[in-house]
Design goal:
By secondary structure, this protein is an alpha/beta fold. It has four helices and five strands; from the N terminus they run ββαβαβαβα. The chain has helices at 26-31, 49-55, 70-81, 92-98; strands spanning 8-10, 19-22, 38-39, 61-65, 85-90. It has a five-stranded parallel sheet with strand order 1-5-4-2-3. The longest helix has 12 residues, at 70-81. The chain starts with 7 loop residues before the first strand and ends in a 16-residue tail after the last helix.
Length: 114
Amino acid sequence: MHFGSLPTVGVDALTSQDFLLDVRENDEWEAGHAEGALHIPMSEFVGRYGEFTEQAPDGGRVYVLCRVGGRSAQVTQYLIQQGIDAVNVDGGMQAWEAAGRPVKNGKGEPGAVV
């Protein structure tokens, strides 16, 4: 799949102040996610868009994550079409974990990316 000039960043560019949107499925999220990220699975995203807009920073940038970057690229593209400043996180949660960033499970304990 080709996403053209989709804005993309690596996990090394992210700070704790950035707004993260995780679009993986529930089982992936429960196994391990970035603390503080908003979780809305891609399969439910359009139906839960209002939930996203309530929590996203007004006029701020949104960093979209999945496991490796494919699903997040699709959601990033959708958000850009809605006028949102969205950026795809290259390598997704696999890159996040590989970079030594903390991963929490559904209980708030150390988790793993599946």
